[in-house]
Amino acid sequence: MIKCLYKINRMKQLLIIRHAKSSWEASIPRDFDRPLNNRGLKDAPAMAKKILDRKVAIDAFISSTAKRALTTASFFYDQYKQNGHKTQGIIGVPELYMASPSAFENTILDTNDALNTIAIFSHNPGITEFANTLTSTKIDEMPTCSVFAIKIETDKWSDFLNAKKSFWFFDYPKM
User: Fold this and answer.
1) pTM for the predicted model, two decimal places
2) Are 87 and 56 in contact (CB under 8 A)?
3) CATH number of this structure's domain 11-171
4) Any idea what the Cα angle at residue 172 is, between residues 166 and 173, rounded to 5°?
5) What is the dihedral of CA 69, 150, 53, 75, to 10 degrees?
6) What ranges do the domains of the chain cover?
7) How many CA atoms within 13 Å lie on the side-chain side of 160?
């Protein structure tokens, strides 16, 4: 009989992504409804391609339901779909609009374990605050359309809070 001397860890991967640059046009009555501006419309597909070029296979895109976050998520989803990746699509989560770290945590804890890599799209200041709770790697602020990625040593999202997490990468359009 052969005895296994090591444990094989399954890993989950989490990308948290701040929405791309949005418009501050005075004619838009609610913050929730702000669209991407021209720079955001350029940066979102470019960042999606950068992440795809890293060979990151995203299983689901989870987004705040605010227009700028959903639009950013749709650029990522479209880039992945056009390149033949199968994903769950975009899952809208209203609690990710102006979310606290606990809203991010609750979203992650509720994620289906069949999904190994998820991307969450949201807003500052909460997204930066949440990123800074994950590992020893700290950032001053997540720029628009930035991606902060970690690996989690677990096979269940419900174990996220207590699982060992390690910094994977940080990227943004002007990097």
Assistant:
1) 0.92
2) no
3) 3.40.50.1240
4) 160
5) -10
6) 11-171
7) 23
Determine the 3-state secondary structure of 86 from DSSP.
coil
Mean pLDDT by groups of 10 residues along the chain of 175 residues? 49 97 85 95 97 95 98 97 88 97 97 95 97 97 98 97 98 92
Tokens linked to 68: 């700028």
Residues 6+ apart with CB under 8 A from 30: none
Task: Dihedral sign for Cα 53, 172, 97, 65, please.
Answer: negative
Q: Is the dihedral of CA 121, 127, 130, 136 positive or negative?
A: positive
CB 120 within 8 A of CB 91: no
- Confidence (pLDDT) at 175: 79
